[in-house]
C-alpha cells in the first residue's frame, strides 16, 4: 500500500454532512477521488449516473453480488448499496486517495478486507442539530426521518471503532481536518518504511 | 491527556533542520510551545537563556538530576542535555502542544514515561545533503562534524520506532506536515472518547 493512495472510509449518520465536507475537502485537495457506489435507490434531484452513484435495478445489483464484483454491499431502508471493487483498486493504483462515503455495516466489512484503511467518523455538534438537519433537508417524509434518527443513534455507538472523529460544526474546518488526516496518515512510519531503505543510509 | 495539549517529540540527526521546521510551524500555529532544555554546553552565537536553553554548570545540572527534576537527560559529545519536568507539565496543563526537540536516547526515555507522546523523526532528503548541511553550518570543527555524521547514521537506524517521518526537503512543507500531524492526532478516537460521552447521545 505504501506507494499507492490511501483508502479512506468516511462514515457517520445520514444528515451529518459527509458529502458537503468531502466536496470542500476535494476542492482543496486534488488527490482525492470518491468511490462511486452502486445503489438500487432512486436518484435524488440533481444526482448523476456514475458521478453520485451507479444506479442499478435490483436484478443487476444482485448479479454484481453473484459475480463478486462488490467489496461490500448492504441493504439499508429497503435499498441496496455497494462498492464496486475494480473501480477503487484502479484509483488506488494510480496514487489517488479514495474516499468511501459509506454506512456503518459497509465500513466494518471494508475494514476487515483492507486493514490499512483509514476510517473517519463524522459527528454532529449535538444530537438536536442532527435532527434539525434531517428535518430541514425536506427530501424525505417524516417516517423516513424518524427511521434515520433512530439509526443515527445506533451508528454513533460504533464511532469509537474508527481511527478519527471529526465534529462537523464548521464545514471549512471539518474539510481541513479531513485533509490533515490524509496528510498525516501518509507520514506514518508504517506507510514509509520503504523510504528508510530508498534514502540510502 | 484528552483535555490537555499534546506532548510531541521532534527527533532527527543534528543538522537536519529540526529547529528551522519548528520555528516555521510555530509561526503558523500559536498553540505550540517549545520545551526548553537544560544543557551544560556553551551558548552558540545568538542563543538566549530560557529561550533556547537553560544554560547550567555541570554542578547545577547534576543537582537537577539528583532532585529528580528532569524527565530525561543524556550526555552527548561531552555535554549534558535534559528536559525539566515541571516546565512541560505546566504547559500541557494549560492546553499547549509542547514540542521537545531531543536526541534519540532522550526520546526513548520520554516514550517510556509518556506513552501517549507523539513522536516525529525528521530525515534529510539524502545522506549527502545532511553532510553538506553539517559542514556548511561552520560552527563546529571537522572532528565534531565527523562525530555527528557517524552519530546521524546510528540515529537514523531508530527512525522506524517513531510514529511519523518527515523528510525535510522543503522547510515550509515540512512545517505544514508537522502541524497536520498535530491536528490529526487531536482527532484520533483515543484522544476523543470523552466527546462521545459529552455530546449527549
3D architecture notes:
The structure is a homodimer of 201-residue chains. Chain A is α/β, with parallel strands linked by helices and 201 residues long. Chain A has one domain (7-186): Rossmann fold (3-Layer(aba) Sandwich). Chain A has helices at residues 18-28, 58-66, 85-93, 104-113, 127-137, 142-156, 171-185, 193-198; strands spanning 7-11, 32-34, 37-39, 53-55, 70-76, 79-84, 97-101, 118-123, 164-167. Chain A has a five-stranded parallel sheet, with helices on both faces. A four-stranded mixed sheet of chain A has the order 4-3-6-5. The longest helix of chain A is centred in the C-terminal third of the chain and has 15 residues, at 142-156. Chain A is globular, with a radius of gyration of 17 Å. At the A-B interface, strand 9, helix 7 and helix 8 of A face strand 9, helix 7 and helix 8 of B. Chains A, B: It is found in: Cytoplasm. Chains A, B: One of its GO terms (molecular function) is ATP binding. Chains A, B: Its EC number is 2.7.4.8. Chains A, B: Its main location: cytoplasm.
Number of strands of chain A: 9
CATH topology of chain A: Rossmann fold
Strand order of the largest sheet of chain A: 2-7-1-8-9
In percent, how helical is the residue content of chain A? Answer: 40-55%
EC number (chains A, B): 2.7.4.8
Function (chains A, B): Essential for recycling GMP and indirectly, cGMP.
Pfam families (chains A, B): Guanylate_kin (PF00625)
Catalytic activity (chains A, B): GMP + ATP = GDP + ADP
Amino acid at each position: 500500500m505504501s506507494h499507492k493512495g490511501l483508502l479512506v472510509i468516511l462514515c457517520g449518520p445520514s444528515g451529518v454532512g459527509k458529502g458537503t465536507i468531502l466536496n470542500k475537502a476535494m476542492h482543496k485537495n486534488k488527490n482525492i477521488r470518491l468511490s462511486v457506489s452502486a445503489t438500487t435507490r432512486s436518484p435524488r434531484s440533481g444526482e448523476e449516473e456514475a458521478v453520485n452513484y451507479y444506479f442499478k435495478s435490483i436484478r443487476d445489483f444482485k448479479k454484481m453480488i453473484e459475480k463478486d464484483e462488490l467489496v461490500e454491499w448492504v441493504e439499508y431502508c429497503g435499498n441496496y448499496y455497494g462498492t464496486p471493487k475494480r473501480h477503487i483498486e484502479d484509483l488506488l493504483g494510480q496514487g489517488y486517495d479514495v474516499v468511501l462515503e459509506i454506512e456503518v455495516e459497509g465500513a466494518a466489512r471494508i475494514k476487515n478486507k483492507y486493514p490499512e484503511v483509514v476510517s473517519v467518523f463524522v459527528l454532529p455538534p449535538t444530537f438536536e442539530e442532527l435532527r434539525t438537519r434531517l428535518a430541514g433537508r425536506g427530501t424525505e417524509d417524516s417516517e423516513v426521518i424518524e427511521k434515520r434518527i433512530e439509526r443515527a443513534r445506533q451508528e454513533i455507538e460504533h464511532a469509537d471503532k474508527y481511527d478519527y472523529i471529526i465534529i462537523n460544526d464548521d464545514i471549512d474546518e471539518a474539510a481541513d481536518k479531513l485533509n490533515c488526516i490524509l496528510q498525516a496518515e501518509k507520514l506514518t512510519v508504517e506507510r514509509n518504511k520503504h523510504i528508510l531503505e530508498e534514502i540510502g543510509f
